[in-house]
Amino acid sequence: MKQSTVRKLISFGLLMVLVIGFSISSNYFLSSSNIFAIFRDASIVGIIGVGLTYVILTAGIDLSTGSMMALVGMVMANIYQYTLLPIWVMLLIGIAAGMTAGLFNGFIVTRLYLPEFIATLSTMGIYRALTYIIAIKKNGLITSQPMKTAAFVRLSGEIKGIYYVIIIFIIMVVIGQAILKYTRFGTNLYAVGSNIKAARLSGINTGRTRMTAYVIVGFCVAVATVFQTARMQCTTVLLGDGMEFNVIAAVVVGGCALDGGRGDVIGTLIGALFMAALNNGIYKFQINASYQLIIKGAIIIGIVVFDSWYNKKMEQASASRRIKEAVNEQ
Amino acid sequence: MSSEVILEAKNIYKSFSQVPVLQDVHLEVAKGEVHALMGENGAGKSTLIKILTGAYTKDQGSILWKGQEVEINSLKDCRQLGVSCIYQELSVIPVLTVAQNIYLGREPKIGKTGLIDHKRMNRMTQALIDQYNFPLHPKDTVGDLGIGLRQLTEILKGLSARSELLIMDEPTASLSGKEAEILFGIIESLKEKGFSVIYISHRLEEVYRLSDRLTILRDGKNKALLSRQEIEPLKMIQLMIGKEVDESEGSVKILTEKKESKTALKVEHLTCKGKFEDVSFTVQEGEIIGVGGLIGAGRTELVRCIYGADKYDSGAIYLHGKKFVPSSIRKSIKQGLGFVPEDRRGQGFIPLLSVKRNTALTNYDLIAKRALAITSKEELDMCLKAIRKMDIRPDDPDKPVGLLSGGNQQKVVLGKWLMRELKVLIVDEPTAGIDVGAKDEIYNLLRMLADNGVVVILVSSDLQELLRVSDRILVMRKGKIIKEFSEGTVTQADILEAASGLKEVRS
Amino acid sequence: MKRIKFERYSKVLLLLLFIAVLTILKPKSFPTVGNISNVLWSISVIGILVSGTVFPLLLGGIDLSIGSLMGLSACITVISIQKLNYANQSVFLGIGCAVIAGLVVGGFHGVVVTVFKVPPFLVTFATQSIVLGITQVLTNNKIISCLSPKLFTSIGLGRIGPFTFPIYLMLGIVLISYFVLNKTVFGRYVYAVGGNIEAARISGIDHQFVTVVSYMISGLTAAIGGVVLASMTQQGMASTGSGYETDVITAAVVGGVSLAGGEGKIQDAVIGAILVGLLNNGMNLVGVPSTNQGLIKGLVIIGAVALDVANKNDNKIRLFKAGKGVKKDV
């Protein structure tokens, strides 16, 4: 069986262990309303995760997704507050804002040649600061910014219990995976992350590929922000605080390798569900939010260390197999 | 082989920093021909190929493709013409399938949707596989394949891009016997189909078997152009090495039995699966032992294991009679081993650091008074000593080694070892890319070390160098020591014959 | 050689220019005793931290956890003092435990980076979260004040001559760092491993040891910085030190430490620390709200790293051309 499939099964297995563990300790865990709640939470993280998967496949990273959310939210709030533009225009502008932020990230990385982590660490601060700068102040104070139009709030609704955001998430997963497996762009992502020199030699424009991945992240962040703010019926300057962490965790748990070339959107879906289920369970057990920080950090390190060990084992096995073949011939 | 010329390079001149590397070189390849390109290291083969593939620009001369003059300035130009080059560092993407690799960048799409048509891509790949009879499957992940099959994937990629000329640089260096056989079969069938191949190799039996014509370069100039009938092993060697008669100076060595001397190093049945097998030899104090062989013979792997840079599977090493297990490099150094790696820039020195820091790199146990603190003065003294001894230029201890010329960089690399009481010094291709003057200096140095009782293991592909410097010569082939020259006369031809297994060809 | 000297002079000039500009712009608030004190305080903390974090940076790695390590260290110290009734001995115990915590976390980083080949930014990014969570649990999310004993408060507030103690402490630590980096074998090894890890290994240098110790040093200075900060503010809370990692990295990069490793001097990093301290102070005086300062800081990092990368590419080309000589035929 392909290694990537095995890896996804492992993630899925972890998810099942978690689900079983929680459902044993609580009858409520597997109730349909709770399951949908988990899916809803997973959707926000997962939508961003689809984009981040692309970036990580190219051996890149984006630490600014949380701050991007806040910025997009505040841009939309400004439109909402100060103009009479219809809601759908506000949404479009929000999406444009997200993609612009992504474009800036891509620019710094591909044109100024900054290492990705420092570039997005910096933009993390920049976008958050920009959020504060454009925040609407009442008497010099920034408060949460209400966005209560029915048309907007409706986005947080549901159909037969399935929240719209979940539907959008599923759609994005399907499209995201299709792009990955059925378009040149998708193949290019794997090529760039796996062997950038060879990719260039084959005529792939590696700069453009990476830039596009960052813009897609911006798009995904914007979509997630739309649904998040619709549900909260407001936006705050603190929106998305810590989100970058959740998204990276989801992508990594789902099997994406940080050095690029391995992983896919389905894995991220599993990862997002895992993190959402984890958060949900922790919350229900009233475990301190602080423990969440500890657990999430530990999971990321644990998974990455496991992946590193696992891949080494696979390579050793493959190498010794080839040596055996060579030796047998002689 | 037809008479239609597909590629012609005429009057090619190329120099680097005023040093001529190619002078008035010609190469002509016909349609359906396997044209071999041979020459010793430094003869100019890879420079010529880099010019043909657009990596370098020629200073003078012209390149004609199917009679028309062309300019090749990049790999893209080269590909567009219909030339594919397969280097040793393969450019395949391990996580993708054979089909995906072959069509990377130009995948077939489904109508206007922009989606990749995997079914068609696999079918097209299978068609190519069938057409050329390659042992591949479109859906195999390249990462799971051995080097031989990866190479074939790359070749197939070139063919699918309608390449008419394939350039292969030492293709069998990392291949097993079986994989090489498959490759030869494919080359032969490609020939029949009208494809041309420029085949660069040191392995005489391969050239002997495959080529229609052979161009031999020596010292940057054309030495000979032989047709198939004229390809005769001994003649090839003589032309490459350059002396018509074996008895000219430099190509014959008379080995004398070393006087009573202690055995300093003994290697017994050293094995590292897949790299070298059952290697045994002894070296006396003060002896320089040369290790010859072709690329892929396992020489570098062997000496790295002796030094402790890599691990071996079984066998034993004895230093002055005592068993020596190279468990850590630090331990090896303390026991008196030194190593000058083949990859000078990647492993030999730290480019950003100064000459002073690089010469001290392995020697802080000698400089530091207490466990921690160093005095710059001691470091500087050591560096000045090294600069004097090795004649490093410029003689600035603070100059970053990355800014020195190749020869001086190597002197720095060697210099640090000279500051120690060495028992065994291993040098791997020590004079590659170094000018003649510096080469001589290094040879003298090695001789001087030997005269002081140090064992020198010299791994080299430069036959002249091996003969000139070594007291005895071992030749490795496919991971084993195939021949030991320890007495009587030995010529460059002898070494090359042993290294390339020509005896097998002749018999 | 000349080039490097020029760069340092230009940085010092920049420094003086900065001071001049600030004095002109805010003649009433900048050159006051109170303000200079503040600036010196922040410079001293940044200086202490950068003296240790420079080690992993020189290896080509990074330590993003120092901010939360400061918080942990501050809280451990303050809680110990509190629990032992503010006795003088409790101060030593508290500091001791904080230092041990810093060393342990640092050691963990080093091992994970060198044995499991996990990218440094990721493991330190993850532990940032874990440590923050632990600190929150430890303090129950409360602020713990600690106004005595004098032994403790004098660390941050004590005066010797015209300056407060932290400045002297910083100078001392900088000197130690300078000594280790320039006058010990270990320091030489750090530059060697950062410059070319494979060549260092072949030369018998134990790069794993060097890596682990370097990260431990970074953890150590973070712990010391936390103690100082706790003493200065006379309290400890989970968010103590939060955000310092950005300042420290900015100080290092502006000071010429290359993110790729192998290059950079502690003296220059200290100049960078002074610049960052002045920048922060300047922004405060001019009235840039703290929430917006991330914008300027982010742009500064991007600018500094972009310049560094451009310089290195320039150097690479120079080095490459110089080392060519005669082409070798292989």
Describe this structure as you would to a colleague.
The complex is a heterotrimer of chains A (330), B (507) and C (330). Chain A has 330 residues and is mainly α. Helix content of chain A is 75%, strand content 4%. Chain A has a single domain, classed as ABC transporter involved in vitamin B12 uptake, BtuC, CATH 1.10.3470. In chain A, the strands form 3 sheets. Chain A has a two-stranded antiparallel sheet with strand order 1-2. A two-stranded antiparallel sheet of chain A has the order 3-6. Chain A has a two-stranded antiparallel ribbon with strand order 4-5. In chain A, helix 2 crosses helix 8 and helix 2 runs antiparallel to helix 10. The model of chain A has no long low-confidence stretch (mean pLDDT 89). Chain B is an alpha/beta fold. Chain B folds into 3 domains: 237 residues, Rossmann fold; 154 residues, 3-Layer(aba) Sandwich (Rossmann fold), CATH 3.40.50; 72 residues, no CATH class. Helices cover 35% and strands 26% of the residues of chain B. Chain B contains 19 helices and 22 strands. In chain B, the strands form 5 sheets. In chain B, strands 6-7-8-3-9-10 form a 6-stranded mixed sheet, with helices on both faces. Chain B is globular and about 75 Å long. With 330 residues, chain C is mainly α. Chain C has a domain of 228 residues. Chain C is built from 13 helices and 4 strands. Chain C starts with a helix and ends in an 8-residue tail after the last helix. The C terminus of chain C is likely disordered. At the A-C interface, helix 5 and helix 13 of A face helix 5 and helix 13 of C.
